[in-house]
Design a protein that fits this description.
heterodimer; A: Rossmann fold; six-stranded mixed β-sheet; 30% helix; B: 846 residues; alpha+beta; Substrate Binding Domain Of Dnak, Chain:A, Domain 2; PH-domain like; Annexin V, domain 1; 4 domains; four-stranded mixed β-sheet; 23 helices; 16 strands; ANK repeat (chain B); zinc (chain B)
Chain lengths: 214, 846
């Protein structure tokens, strides 16, 4: 990135999570430095990178936290998710186990992250067509059922990497700029009788979600 | 008796006989059908009975499950147990009954049908055949022509034979029929009687069973009446439930209660600026909220309460009118601002007035402990208290109940680098000395970091005055300040005491040999508890503090074999070696600071009345410095729980190193005290003039801080840093304290150093930065800490509004909490992460 990214309108923290070896670090290096390394080492703790993009004429700076997938290289878990507004949950389309573990990662997000965190399911290594073990339709269906966006990428040949980050950041931007999210989404059960109902317009979340995987 | 037929008639084969036979046959057939039907139905009954019993026992089993529900209600639990027992007994009886039914009714009747009736039927076939043969013989005989006498003769023979055969068969047949008819009555009746007996037994058993339990259940039903009465009362009370709505509203709006608690919407300060509903309350000058949202869903898996504002006295509250939402107000402290939303205008004004009142009250009643929350003793709410330290605990440290300088009562201030408490006047003088002499904090107004608390714990006014006011008698021209004295007296005194250090004790000196002159060097300190030496030490303390140092100096002519070492300070008993006495096996003593077992260690050591400060010879030629600075056991203040003692999380250093007396000076003293993290001795070394930037030329140019880092002690590091130790000092290999703590995997120390702004980008002589070492060692926590700190600095550089990123602060706080509350866990994480790499680590300092 040539110029200094001194000025931005929004700073979004996005975490990259998923099993060890699915290509999180390469996704990040492809997006932020346009680099790819076939022999990259396991991430220890967390690595950071930033890149700014434009959405609706606003500069959005993404602060991306690339976390260790391997349990023994992970620091205190809560650190990763604090203040994160987006998460790219990455699996390897050629390794079915990494897809099966997506549920576990979703659980971890639920336990530690903001309720409104935008999650995108990313099937990486789409270049490995002949080794594919996770059908696109299956993952897409899973994503729909869990309210996630979905995309397949290849950090190796750059397919969809830009789009993935662009989409999730746009989605976050839409939500944050709307500022009309209710928390928690379901109504409260125990509510004193003198509470005035708070009028909340429907969020655009649902609409935005559809934009991701055309 | 039913009619039987005359044998005459049989022999005659009269129509009456035939009539009788056919009548009996139908009768028997009829009987057979009936019996078969009975057997079938009985089978059904037994089967359904078995099904019933099966379901019954399943039902009883389900009752067992129910019983578990009443574990907390002993009576109900008991009664249920008895009832279930009853039901199960009944079931057992029922099973027996069914068994009897199948054994009597089914078996006997089946036998009757199969054997007796079938015999008759079989014989009927035979009889018919014989009867037919007789008929044929009659016909043949009739047809025989008189012209053929041979034929006639033959026919007559056949006839007579078959006639006799017929007659016998007929008689047999009648016999069978008659017998069956005669037996059916008794047979069936006895069967049913057996069944009846079984039923009788069944009911009898049931009756006995019920009799046994009769009293018990009678009692229960009596209890039940009482319980029903209770229930009705409760129901009546509950009928008034809607009244409480009215009352609640009234009290909510009218009462000037300042114990407000309830739900507020809280606007998140980061991420999505979303609103969430949390339970807020005021407790102990803090604004606290529950991390559970109103659906009781847990958000974080740590504690369930968060402190929003630690000290309301530095906060202001104002309503917020801008923005979309109604009923909003803002709580502003010097560092942050929180937007909260109440449910109604009334609640808004209630909250604002309560907060304002709390702030006012807190400022006014600075000195009295203020309980804002009525049920703050409730277990789930006790958490803030557990995590946080109450300032009164500081006063429990020996000497701290009085100002360290003027002995004024109720000190409310502290000097965190000296480890003392002060009254407000003296604290003012301390401030004027400058922060390089004294860093003043408020006990009540400031937020205290764990490591500062630890330092305070280790020192205290008594210990510090033993060092800084050891020689008052020598200097009498200065007036000792008192609680009411003028400011000038205080100033002069405090300056003389801490800046000029005029009353400081002398350098520890060796003592005469008292017993045999063994040349061996032995360290007696076995890493025991701080207070362990009280019995031995108290005598020396008593004389040492009172009339001490009046010049009875020991002669120094005792030869160069004398050595000194620093008492290792460890309050917590975590023995690596077995103790001589098994007392330490008793876990209960782990919690008490004072145990006697170390006395056994020192049994044969003379307890010496030591004329000089800080001098205690325990083995003939070894001086253990710090023995008499160790205090009498005081109840470890509740500041840190027993699992969280001051030195918890610090590694066990080896036996304190022994050094010849020729090398005893303030710097060396501090250098060695840092290894064993003995804060009182470190304090003494500073008082004796240890130089902040000194490095040990004999030991790889290492600084005090290097030593403290190697010891693993967070509080020793903090103490050195508070007293101006150079944080980025490097040894001859270019390693800074951060390098070494990283290499050793001491997360809590790395955190501390980073908090004190240690230079993380410093490269050692071989070009390694702390991060390189952490990555090499694969220590995820330290890597994260280092990278995160750098990231934060980068953001800080670019941002217009300087100051730390909220997320960064939160994450660092997580690490700090984790390090403070679960040091052991951190150590284990370390061990598994980095044990291997630590072996080959660059520091071979031990």
């Amino acid at each position: 990135m040539g110029a200094r990214e001194d000025e931005y309108d929004y700073l979004f923290k996005v975490v990259l999570i998923g099993d060890s070896g699915v290509g999180k670090s390469n996704l990040l290096s492809r997006f932020t430095r346009n680099e790819f390394n076939l022999e990259s080492k396991s991430t220890i703790g967390v690595e950071f990178a930033t890149r700014s993009i434009e959405v609706d004429g606003k500069t959005i700076k993404a602060q991306i936290w690339d976390t260790a997938g391997q349990e023994r290289y992970r620091a205190i878990t809560s650190a990763y998710y604090r203040g994160a507004v987006g998460a790219l949950l990455v699996y390897d389309i050629a390794k079915h186990l990494t897809y099966e573990n997506v549920e576990r990662w979703l659980r971890e997000l639920r336990d530690h992250a903001d309720q409104n965190i935008v999650i995108m399911l990313v099937g990486n290594k789409s270049d490995l067509r002949h080794l594919r073990s996770v059908p696109t339709d299956e993952a897409k269906l899973f994503a729909e059922r869990n309210g996630l966006s979905f995309i397949e990428t290849s950090a190796l040949d750059s397919t969809n990497v830009e789009t993935a980050f662009q989409n999730i950041l746009t989605e976050i931007y839409r939500i944050v700029s709307q500022k009309q999210i209710r928390d928690p989404p379901e109504g409260d059960v125990i509510r004193p009788s003198n509470v005035e109902p708070i009028d909340v317009k429907p969020t655009v979340t649902a609409d935005v979600r559809k934009q991701c995987c055309q | 008796m039913r009619a039987t037929i005359d044998f005459e008639e049989c022999l005659k084969d009269s129509p009456r006989f035939r009539q009788f036979v056919s009548k009996e046959e139908t009768d028997i057939e009829h009987l057979e059908h009936r019996l078969e039907k009975i057997i079938k139905l009985c089978n059904v009954a037994v089967d359904s009975g078995k099904e019933y019993v099966k379901n019954q026992s399943a039902f009883a089993m389900s009752l067992w499950d129910l019983q578990q529900h009443f574990l907390d209600n002993k009576n109900a639990h008991n009664a249920l147990g008895k009832l279930i027992h009853c039901f199960q007994e009944m079931n057992k009886f029922h099973t027996t009954l069914l068994d009897q039914a199948s054994r009597t009714v089914l078996k006997n009747l089946n036998e009757f049908v199969k054997d007796d009736i079938n015999q008759v039927k079989d014989y009927k076939g035979h009889f018919l055949k014989v009867s037919e043969g007789y008929d044929n013989a009659l016909i043949k005989n009739a047809q025989a022509s008189k012209n053929r006498p041979q034929e006639v003769q033959e026919a007559a023979n056949i006839l007579s034979a078959s006639k006799s055969c017929f007659q016998h068969t007929a008689l047999d047949y009648v016999n069978y029929i008659t017998l069956v008819q005669a037996r059916k009555g008794p047979s069936i009746l006895s069967t049913l009687l057996d069944y009846y007996q079984a039923c009788v037994t069944y009911y009898h058993q049931g009756f006995d069973l019920c009799n046994d339990f009769d009293e018990f259940f009678k009692n229960i039903s009596e209890d039940l009446n009482a319980l029903r009465g209770d229930y009705h009362q409760l129901e009546k009370a509950m009928q008034n439930r809607h009244m409480s709505v009215m009352r609640y509203c009234d009290s909510n709006t009218n009462s000037a209660s300042h114990n407000v608690e309830g739900y507020l919407f809280k606007k998140k300060s980061k991420g999505f600026k979303t609103w969430c509903r949390r339970w807020f309350y005021l407790s102990d000058n803090q604004l606290v909220y529950s991390d559970l949202d109103s659906n009781c869903r847990k958000r974080s898996n740590e504690d369930s309460f968060s402190v929003m504002e630690e000290d309301l006295r530095i906060c202001t509250v104002r309503p917020v009118n801008e923005g979309d939402r109604r009923f909003c107000f803002e709580v502003i402290s010097p560092t942050k601002s929180h937007i909260l939303q109440a449910d109604s205008a009334d609640m808004l004004s209630l909250w604002i007035s309560a907060l304002q009142h709390s702030i006012g009250a807190a400022i006014q009643h600075d000195s009295t402990h203020h309980h804002s929350r009525p049920q703050s003793t409730n277990a789930p709410n006790a958490l803030p208290a557990k995590r946080r330290i109450h300032w009164e605990e500081f006063l429990k440290i020996p000497g701290n109940a009085q100002c360290c300088d003027c002995r004024g009562s109720d000190p409310r201030w502290a000097s965190i680098n000296l480890g003392i408490t002060l009254c407000i006047e003296c604290s003012g003088v301390h401030r004027s000395l400058g922060v390089h002499y004294s860093k003043v904090r408020s006990l009540t107004l400031d937020a205290w970091e764990t490591e500062n608390v630890k330092v305070m714990m280790e020192l205290g006014n008594e210990v510090v005055n033993r060092i800084y006011e050891a020689r008052i008698a020598d200097d009498c021209e200065l007036r000792k300040p008192t609680e009411q004295c003028e400011i000038g007296v205080r100033e002069a005194w405090i300056k003389a005491k801490y800046v000029e250090r005029r009353f400081v004790c002398g350098m520890p000196k060796p003592q005469e040999l008292l017993a045999s002159e063994t040349a061996e060097v032995l360290s007696i300190d076995s890493g025991g508890v701080l207070a362990d030496d009280t019995v031995e030490g108290s005598s020396s303390v008593a004389s040492g503090v009172g009339g001490l140092l009046t010049g009875k100096r020991a002669t120094l002519s005792l030869g160069g074999t004398r050595k000194w070492t620093v008492k290792k300070l460890r309050r917590r008993r975590r023995q690596l070696r077995p103790l001589p006495k098994t007392l330490s096996d008793d876990p209960s003593i782990y919690n008490t600071a004072k145990t006697g077992d170390e006395l056994d260690d020192d049994d044969d050591d003379e307890s010496i009345n030591i004329p000089s400060m800080s001098l205690s010879i325990s083995r003939d030629d070894l001086l253990v410095i710090g023995e008499d600075l160790a205090l009498d056991s005081y109840e470890t203040p509740g500041i840190l729980g027993s699992d969280q003692e001051s030195t918890e999380g610090e590694s066990d250093a080896e036996q304190p190193e022994e050094v010849p007396f020729t090398q005893l000076d303030a710097n060396m003293l501090l250098y060695h005290a840092a290894v064993v993290h003995n804060l009182p001795v470190m304090c003494m070394a500073f008082a004796l003039g240890a130089e902040k930037h000194w490095k040990n030329a004999q030991d790889r140019q290492r600084s005090f801080l290097h030593q403290a880092v190697i010891s693993g002690s967070v509080m020793a590091c903090e103490y050195l840093l508070l007293n101006g130790a150079a944080i980025d000092a490097v040894d001859e290999l270019g390693y800074s304290a951060l390098h070494i703590s990283t290499a050793k995997g001491h997360i809590a120390q790395v955190y501390l150093l980073l908090k004190h702004k240690a230079a993380y980008d410093l490269a050692s002589s071989d070009g390694k930065k702390a991060l390189d070492i952490a990555v090499e060692q694969k220590n995820a926590d330290i890597v994260t800490l280092l990278r995160l700190t750098r990231l934060n600095d980068e953001i800080g550089l670019n941002d217009e509004y300087n100051g730390e990123d909220e997320t960064y602060k939160d994450v660092m706080k997580d690490f700090s909490n984790f390090a403070a509350s679960q040091p052991r866990m951190l150590r284990q994480r370390n061990d598994s992460n980095t044990l291997e790499s630590q072996r080959s680590s660059l520091t071979n300092s031990d």
